[in-house]
Amino acid sequence: MDRELQAEELELLATGAWILGAGGGGSPYLSYLNARNLYAEGTRVRILDPAALQDDDLVAVVSNMGAPLVGQERLADAQFAAKPVRMMEEYLGRKFSAVMSVEIGGGNALQPVLVAAVTGLPVVDADAMGRAFPEAQMTSFAIAGLPMFPLTLADIRDNEVIVSRAASWKWMERISRKVCTEVGSIAATCKAPRTGKEVRDHGILYTVTKAIGLGRLVHEARRVHDDPVRALVAAESGKVLFKGKILDSERRTTEGFLRGRARIEGLAENRGSRFELAFQNEFVVGWLDGAVAITVPDIICVLDTVSGEAVGTESLRYGQRVSVVALPAPPILLTPKGLEHVGPRAFGYDLDYTSVFERAA
Amino acid sequence: MDRELQAEELELLATGAWILGAGGGGSPYLSYLNARNLYAEGTRVRILDPAALQDDDLVAVVSNMGAPLVGQERLADAQFAAKPVRMMEEYLGRKFSAVMSVEIGGGNALQPVLVAAVTGLPVVDADAMGRAFPEAQMTSFAIAGLPMFPLTLADIRDNEVIVSRAASWKWMERISRKVCTEVGSIAATCKAPRTGKEVRDHGILYTVTKAIGLGRLVHEARRVHDDPVRALVAAESGKVLFKGKILDSERRTTEGFLRGRARIEGLAENRGSRFELAFQNEFVVGWLDGAVAITVPDIICVLDTVSGEAVGTESLRYGQRVSVVALPAPPILLTPKGLEHVGPRAFGYDLDYTSVFERAA
Description:
Strand content of chain A: 25-35%
Mean pLDDT of chain A: 95
Strand order of the largest sheet of chain A: 15-14-13-12-11-17-16
Oligomer: homodimer
Distance between the termini of chain A: 39 Å
Number of strands of chain A: 17
Structural class of chain A: alpha+beta
Number of helices of chain A: 12
Order of helices and strands of chain A: EHHEEHHEHEEHEEHEHEHHEEEEEEEHH
Radius of gyration of chain A: 19 Å
CATH topology of the largest domain in chain A: CV3147-like fold
Shape of chain A: globular
CATH architecture of the largest domain in chain A: 3-Layer(aba) Sandwich
Largest sheet of chain A: 7 strands, antiparallel
Largest interface: A-B, 21 and 21 residues
């Protein structure tokens, strides 16, 4: 029920996770380099089928929290990623059986791999978003109403914080975000521990495998000179919404997030049109010629039109040739309770969610 | 080596602590009412001579942290004050032998009394400032270089935070202040636990007795129609710096503090002069006709000229007849290391400290 994560899969995981990041989750590149280095030194990490978790196994849910732009400048390593996990074990007086990411999107897909590399724990083939989202209450665990504490947080100095109780998921987000912001808008965290049963019942399962699969698809298309964007959309029942050139982007790192907008000028079949995107770490809403074209929780990806490589909200820049692609979100996010947590209103947009996939039908 | 705090001493403690608050520490009035109520129900609190502490006794150092103005609006109680103490015991897996205040000035003089009332712990006759100060690194324990963690913090909802490590006293202040601000600029805290030896060696001793004594002095002067301000200054080797009427005050509750300025127009022998005060919770600098007249760590008190009652920075208002009084600070605060932590530069004023008492000599 567990298998070794192969060295060549690290890059595939990074590529696939970056696509599922919907612009956020932070670039996986630096974490991938860290993981590759650990593999070069002989470390191996195991991937665990969530079905193999015992009911009372304790699973560490990790993430590198903060503003993606800062994550590109303040480099982390595996020991740092593992620090809050060790804090949590000490705080609980219990050992973890496995580790998983809070979000499969972006660099956080690699975070449990780094933790696993230094702790020997297996990585559960699951996450709690099926993509990336900016806030703590935007997980399948929060949607399921599971407890949100304790949380442990460490920075690169010697600051360590335990949020031992929180009045709600939103309060957990508010408090941990303020601490994260104060220590420089990036921190390693271990979220509320989950039992094996909670992961099996309320996690979003097999997303590590899915991300590796997406990465393989894109790399394979590149190898055979096929169109990676088309290959991805075909395999994942996605949709290409727009093709064009980035006209401009504005970004501000504020309140522990990377917020901003990007405008894309149409090329080819979209010539004469404009696409605009708003983001809070991840892409939240897209407008085609001023009309809402897509919203969260649909997975809004901006991909390099030629290579199919994802473009993060922190690396958008003038002149990039990109395709805006929609991928379907995990079904739990589309339920009424799910939309309360991750629909457009949860991001401050007074819009109803309508799936881009239903619209097309 | 310990004695019962008498019911009539509660009011004296409140009056004396408010004077030592130097405008800050928060009004003791509401905590005094809480304590009086607990006494009316039959609760009694013991005051412990610090000399009676065993070397390895564990002492809880408590405070109600935040902006004084908020403390007047969000009422606390004894169970709330005791919450972070219980959190700390649980976190450490050890029981406390006694409780003390981080600062004898203002409402925090009553905080350990409230904790004692519900836990049965004795209150150590000591604090760590000998007055009130706004920030965590402004204590005799910080000046002595003692460890600054762990800290526990609770708000009135159900949020609980443990700062389990901090890179420095300043980092402890920054992180705990942000959390305090986020939960509404008021929180009950239990600072880094101290051993009995640490309290004996580095605490500021017998300040509960001192505050009660000041209160008794003022109340007695009022009773016999003597001048309470003159009585206080005579007994404490203090100085009256200015007498006048408050012209205006500006206040802003910002970053978890109450900051602002007040201007006083001279009366009687000060007619024609102006006195200006700047504060960050507590009075920090005073100017007489534009020239620096006094700075921290000298204890700058604004007292009602008739009653001798202290006026807090949150209750300054137009028309009050007040006397600006200087009381000597504890000697540890006047050492070079002490001034680094609590001199005018520690508050952002590019001024050297010169004691108002040395100036007069």
